[in-house]
Structure formats: C-alpha cells, structure tokens
Amino acid sequence: MDLLPAQRVTCITSTNHNSRPGPPHVEPPSAYLIETSRRPPVARPGKLRLECQSIGAARKHWHAQQPFRDARRAAEREAAAAQIGALTDRELLIAGAIAYWCEGSKSKPYRKCEQVTFINSDPDLIQFFLRFLQAADVDAADLTFRVYIHERADVEKAERFWLKVTGAQPGQLRQATLKRHNPKTVRKNTGAAYHGCLRIDVRRGSVLYRKIEGWASAVMAAA
Fold first, then answer.
1. What pLDDT, on a 0 to 100 scale, did the predictor assign at position 60?
2. Global confidence as pTM
3. What's the domain count of the chain?
C-alpha cells in the first residue's frame, strides 16, 4: 500500500526473518519546513493594540508623577546644601583650587605656561571662581574677560549677559572669539539661554598659579 507523504517512514529490517525489525528511519524535514520554522511569529493586531495601550498608560502615569519626583529631587538638593552652609576663606581656597585644577589651564612638561586662565559656560561657577580670586587677594582690576560663542549667536547680547554676571567693566572685556558654523553639526546649545563661554585671565598671574598648584596638591594629598 502506498504511503502518504507525511507517513513516509521506512522500517529497516534485517534479512533474517527471525530477527526483530530495526528502528524506524525518518526522513529529514524539507527545506520548506526549516525555512518556515525560522520565520518570526506574526503579531496579531489585537496584541499590538494592547501593547500600545500599555505604553500609553505608562507614559500617562510617568507624567502624572513628574511633580512628585521634581519635589523629591529639590528636597534632596536643599538638604545637601544645608550640610555645607557658609564657606570660610580657607574653604574657598580649597574648593576654588580644585575647581581650577579641573577646569582651568595647566602647565605641561612639554608646554610650560604658568598662567591663570579659567573658562566655563556656567554663570554660577564663574561667580564662584571670582569669589575664589577675591579670597586669594587678586585685584579685580587685574582681570580680563573674553566671550567664546558661536558665530550665529547674538554676540552683543552674550557680552552684556557676562558683564552683568561678573560685574566687570566694559573695558575689561576683550574681543569675542567666534566659533565657525559647521553644517554637519547639529547644535543643541541654541536659544535665548545660550550665552557661550566666558574666559577669565589673571594678569601677572604666575605667582597665583603656583599657589593654586600647591593648594590643589595639598588637598589631593590629604584625601
């Protein structure tokens, strides 16, 4: 009797009629069956709708909880700030020296340059560095400033902003350095909040540089 394709199982038997039949020999699956078994399962429309609804519900919950998360973060920041309190001049020297050693220019073995130059875009950090210079007995008249900003930004507005932040005189402000536009770069630092970076230089600052180097080294050695 002819077997159907799905029943094509050949029994291998011995030529000896007294021996038992051998194990059945099953033909390997066809290439079509292998290919179909590898295909990813097709998502059903109903399942997709449930997944979209779950994502939407999660986003709605996330936005609803946002004010509570913001309040918790603000409370944590305020509690941490209360641990610091007012700084003494000694503490200002410590913090300012470390801030400069992170953000300021430093002399290198291959490029000796003992000058105090500090550049940053954060107004609060700029004001703190100026307070540090005051604690280090630096005369405000020995400071010069320069704005570094993208050429498509409002340069005059940025200069007014930094003069207000620092309290410097217009005569202390040097000509701005413009960053050329690169069409391949997608800029994110745009809008009214973009003021570029401010560079602070201390004239005749070699002695101050060596002091900062000593202060920073002492702090790191004592840690």
1. 79
2. 0.69
3. 1
